[in-house]
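Running this now, will post back.
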Amino acid sequence: MGKNSFVFRFDDVEVHEREFSLVKAGKVLTVEPKAFRALLFLLHNPQKLISKEELFHTVWGDATVGDGSLTRCIWLLRSVLGEDIRNPRYIETVATVGYRFIGRVEVCQEASGETKAIAEPSDLGGIGKRSRGRKRLGGWALGGVLALCLAAIWYLRRPLPPPRVTGYTQITHDGREKTLVGTDGSRLYFNRMAGPVLPESIAEVAISGGGTAPIPVALPNPLLVDVSPNGSSFLISAETGLWNVRILGGQARHMVDAYHGPFHRTGTPWPSLWQMVASSS
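Update: finished.
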């Protein structure tokens, strides 16, 4: 049987899985491939809370990426769909956990094609059947070995239980929407939002709390994507590509003509930033 694909409809939006396209109000809109894959996974699981780990595995596979990349994917989807993060109609954020598609979705299944069997000559039928029998036994044995290997790999690489949050301490009190990206151990760095989807500036606040302060970056429309593991550099997405910017001194170095890429996993959007006390369970 042929592989099936789906068309998802909600409000004036159609998402075509096979064509990898999104149509809103009759107009085809451009969506980055990774953001589109994230949307497809959410649409395949409507009303279900999807963890960030599930989205990372589905969209990026085994590649190591940061929360900044996932945050940007969701931000791009909300921008394309005209979503207001304060009153979401489609994508709901569950802080520190993941996302849920909350809109009402209609699904239409389309068959992509059929496979046809080709008859073999009658005088070769017996030979073909015996050959297929031997191949089938060999295939079963190989399948069993592969299954054992996959089970062993899963056991060795199975995820550890998530940390258990035991307390909170509020760090900021300005009520401004923020997208937390990373830390150098003493300060938190984030994008401060000017509206539902548009970043206003890159800013910082001490881990112990206090006032927030903007960080000037001499790039057009900068968006903080990640902080280096040693806390010395920013990874910033701008109109001119990805830039590595030194935190002290602000020296910028162009990396690549792309829109996102991680140092490591950090960050999630919150109206206020909180310090969490966590312990492994």
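DSSP finds four helices and 19 strands in the chain. More later if anyone needs it.
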